[in-house]
Design a protein that fits this description.
With 222 residues, the chain is mainly alpha-helical. The protein has 2 domains: 61 residues; 153 residues, no CATH class. The chain has 8 helices and no strands. It is globular and about 50 Å long. The two termini are 26 Å apart.
Amino acid sequence: MGWAGFAAVFAGFFLTHSIPVRPGVKARLVGLLGRRGFGLAYSALSLAMLALLIRAAGAAPYLPLWYQAGWHRQAAQAGMLAVCLALAFSIARPNPFSFGGARNDAFDPHRAGILRWTRHPILLALALWAGVHMLANGDLAHVILFGVLGGFAIAGQWLIDRRKRRDLGPAHWAALDSARRAAPRLQPPLSRRGAILRGLAGLAAFAALLLAHPYVIGVAVV
């Protein structure tokens, strides 16, 4: 695959990821599939496009900017363990500050959990994912790929802050954020059983990624 093919797959990736911000298209798909069906279908499409994009970067002309050192792969594995745990403790949790929150009206800023450390744990996990993969893949195509995706994950935090501040009202948003930041950094979980299950889910996801990586992406990581 040449640079034109890589660029075409990149364009297709961003085209499919524009669906949630196109109200007309999203509304028609939700009407056809239902809200849950849309969520499942869109998640599957996003993962498939991401895998295709990564494969396209691997098939693009190889122009090395730096070579992989022995510790790069270990750093990427440690970073991905952190990514999986962060996602496990973030997904489907109340979060009025970012996207993907569930039961946001039940959010308690004094018991914010992982939100005590960041308003956007999912985007931060995506930025870390991109960073550790760029470290371990120093050729031009992968640097472009992971640099762009990591940059969007970082910039997205600022964009969502601006939108949520407008939606919640500046005063209410600021009060919630101030209470969140004033909470203890370390506190016992609201549910010990729930915390254990989420931790196990993160470890299981990490193990599944290690096993599936050579088949989905085409590169063994162990």
